[in-house]
From TrEMBL:
Binds 1 zinc ion per subunit. One of its GO terms (molecular function) is metalloaminopeptidase activity. It comes from the Eukaryota. Residues 529-674 form the Peptidase M1 leukotriene A4 hydrolase/aminopeptidase C-terminal domain. SUPFAM superfamilies: ARM repeat, Leukotriene A4 hydrolase N-terminal domain, Metalloproteases ('zincins'), catalytic domain. This is Aminopeptidase RNPEPL1. It comes from Mustela putorius furo.
Length: 724
């Protein structure tokens, strides 16, 4: 028990400041152990030192808080076993903090919001790092397999609404949120690389926090990194202070903990628009620049016309090595995206536009609990498709939508219509990782509900006006579904009078809580010019006699198709697999060489057809593909398919030859797939013994499988929109 010093008596001695307007308590989040409902988090400051050789992050965290009730006994934060807390301390917030002059490297205020904070404490381990404060007792208790609870005892007689600070010093090692890459796992093979991934509940291993989307605050950070390493964060302002050798960041708008993100490595910038630049390793920068130059500004401008001003200042993009566990992440001001997607132009366009849409839906207005992720993903998907319609036309948007809805029905077939994860309002049971709720229903069933709402008002432009008003009303806050629906009915009083929320079979409550497919789907007839040829070609390959069908099919030049057309065609063939061997032989003769020259999104689908049909003549293409890929999105689906058929020995052989080039987290995941059905003496790697099936890293990264499905009934990663 830490001793209390005399300054702990001070909070009750001074008059409390004027009480701010009351705030509603955050929604109860069963994924958070925190006492967020008892406090107002005003700001957080991070002092971080990156130690790549030790794969360790040292941190000093300052939380600026107010208690919502008098004399709270303790502050409870979300934490993780990977965090080792060294000390906790209390300090009254300086009465004149807002009037203090900015330090030499403070950020200039930009727009509305709190003034930039005073300088952070010095780096962990530096002399004088602690401000004048008193130590606090703390304890760490188990919570779930993805986190712990950190309880910090507070001084007695703390008054309600009186600002105070809690200072925590810690180190983080082997944290699920922090991905350390050796140089050989980067494209340049020159410098170490590190990035964080906080969605959904990983950032509690990055820093102790209220790890719930219901709580938002501004933040600032000072980061010290090895020489020659560029550091970026999801912040509205950033500065490199050369004489101090540190990077300083400030986020002026409130964000939830999961959107605090950091990346550091051999990164160089290139401007691609008046408020956008790309960051990438030097060897990737020309490709990234050429593919996105001018386009991002076009998408941002289209989104602003639809939903109001872009609120975050800059929109930059950083391309990460293939070890990035998902396709893209909408970190404010700085979208993270996997570099592997660069070769697939249409997927790149859709994924970046989806993250642009999150700037309004998800980042500005956030779902208050993980049980209603559709409020971010469904709305962002709807906005994404409005943006693509404005910029690329309705036909392209309908094609992409048909492609995704096809995947949704495939997922439904695998899971069954009674699956609880097919609800929009999913019940999150205590102890279940919210990442396991990330599935196509969140995106596509959510999209269908939003599209249905837009059809009720009869005019997409009027619905755009509603969404603009919704963002304006709720920006920088977190909401529940009822907030959206009440706002919708208030904006359209004529619909409220018609009781559209209670229409038989289409009740709003049924949309939210019924399992199964969407109650209604959009009219995609405007995309028929692109989808009809796909249907026709698929029908030819399933027709009799095969010789005539193959001859007719070979006359159709798919090299001129859009990527989504070819992918949709191959997905249909995958759905029908296993196919008759003579059909697979004819398909290979007709398409194999052509598809082998296309992008990875096309190649992986053809190779899955090869694997699911045990077509040995094309296995060399599978080997070559796996030898060249290091990302989850292009390896996991193939290994899952290889291990559910007669090709597990082939999978083991390829894995032996390539495992050294894979990130340890991905390596462990593949080992788990390979071990399915093997006896205890038939392990694929000596590392498997220490990387058990309950690896905390894989428990904390977005689920490849929903629930505890075995690979034999796996939902392939290709069936899940893994852009967050």
């Amino acid at each position: 028990m830490a001793a209390q010093c005399c300054c702990c008596k001070a909070p009750g001695a001074e008059a409390a400041p004027a009480r701010p307007p009351p705030e509603p308590p955050p929604a109860l989040d069963v994924a958070s152990a925190s006492s967020a409902q008892l406090f107002r988090l005003r700001h957080l400051q991070l002092g971080l030192e990156l130690r790549p050789e030790a794969r360790e992050l040292a941190g000093c965290l300052v939380l600026e808080l107010c208690a919502l009730r008098p004399a709270p006994r303790a502050l409870v934060l979300d934490a993780h076993p990977a965090l080792r807390l060294h000390s906790a301390a209390f300090r009254r917030a300086p009465a004149a903090a807002a009037a203090e002059p900015p330090c030499a490297f403070a950020f200039a205020a930009a727009g509305p919001g709190p003034a930039p904070p005073p300088p952070l404490p010095a780096f962990p381990g530096a002399p004088g790092a602690e401000p004048a404060c008193c130590p606090l007792a703390f304890r760490v208790d188990p919570f779930t397999d993805y986190g712990s609870s950190l309880t910090v005892t507070l001084p007695p007689e703390l008054q309600a609404h009186q600002p105070f600070q809690v200072i925590l010093r810690y180190t983080s090692t082997d944290a699920p949120a922090i991905w350390w890459l050796d140089p050989e796992l980067t494209y340049g093979n020159a410098k170490p690389f590190v990035f964080t991934q906080g969605h959904s509940v990983c950032n509690r291993s990055f820093f102790p926090c209220f790890d719930t989307p219901a709580v938002k605050c501004t933040y600032s950070a000072v980061v010290k990194a090895p020489s020659g390493v560029q550091v970026l964060m999801s912040a509205t302002q950033s500065t490199y202070v050369e004489e101090e050798g540190v990077y300083r960041f400030h986020m002026e708008h409130p964000v939830p903990a999961y959107l605090v993100a950091l990346v550091a490595g051999d990164l160089q910038p290139a401007d691609i628009g008046p408020r956008s630049r790309v960051w990438a390793e030097p060897c990737l920068l020309p490709t990234a620049t050429s593919k996105l130059s001018g386009a991002v500004e076009q998408w941002l401008s289209a989104a602003e016309r639809l939903y109001g001003p872009y609120l975050w200042g800059r929109y930059d993009i950083v391309f990460l090595p293939p070890s990035f566990p998902i396709v893209a992440m909408e970190n404010p001001c700085l979208t993270f995206i996997i570099s592997s997607i660069l070769e697939s132009d249409e997927f790149l366009v859709i994924d970046v536009i989806h993250e642009v849409a999150h700037s309004w839906f998800g980042n500005a207005v956030t779902n208050a609990t993980w049980e209603e992720m559709w409020l971010s993903e469904g709305l962002a998907t709807y906005a994404q498709r409005r943006i693509t319609t404005e910029t690329y036309g309705a036909a392209f948007t309908c094609l992409e939508t048909a492609f995704r809805l096809d995947a949704l029905h495939r997922q439904m077939k695998l899971l069954g219509e009674d699956s609880p994860v097919s609800k929009l309002q999913v019940k999150l049971e205590p102890g279940v990782n919210p990442s396991h709720l990330m599935n196509l229903f969140t995106y596509e069933k959510g999209y269908c509900f939003v599209y249905y709402l837009s059809q009720l008002c009869g005019d997409p432009q009027r619905f755009d006006d509603f969404l603009r008003a919704y963002v304006e009303k709720y920006k920088f806050t977190s909401v529940v579904a009822q907030d959206l629906l009440d706002s919708f009915l208030s904006f359209f009083p004529e619909l409220k009078e018609q009781s559209v929320d209670c229409r038989a079979g289409l009740e709003f409550e049924r949309w939210l809580n019924a399992t199964g497919p969407p109650l209604a789907e959009p009219d995609l007839s405007q995309g028929s010019s692109l989808t009809r040829p796909v249907e026709a070609l698929f029908q030819l390959w399933t027709a009799e006699p095969l010789d005539q069908a193959a001859a007719s099919a070979s006359a159709i030049d798919i090299s001129k198709w859009k990527t989504f057309q070819t992918a949709l065609f191959l997905d249909r063939l995958l759905d029908g697999s296993p196919l008759p061997q003579e059909v697979v032989m004819s398909l290979s003769k007709c398409y194999s060489s052509l598809l082998d020259s296309m992008n990875a999104e096309i190649r992986i689908r053809w190779l899955q057809i090869v694997v699911r049909n045990d077509y040995y003549p094309d296995l060399h293409r599978v080997r070559r593909f796996l030898e060249s890929q290091m990302s989850r999105m292009y390896t996991i689906p193939l290994y899952e398919d290889l291990c559910t058929g007669a090709l597990k020995s082939f999978a083991l052989e390829v894995f032996y030859q390539t495992q050294g080039r894979l990130h340890p987290n991905l390596r462990r995941t593949i080992q788990q797939i390979l071990c399915q059905g093997l006896g205890p003496s038939a392990e694929p790697s000596v590392e498997q013994a220490s990387a058990g099936a309950d690896s905390e890293v894989d428990a904390d990264t977005p689920a490849l499988l929903l629930g505890d499905e075995a690979p034999s009934s796996a939902i392939s990663l290709r069936d899940v929109n893994v852009s967050a």
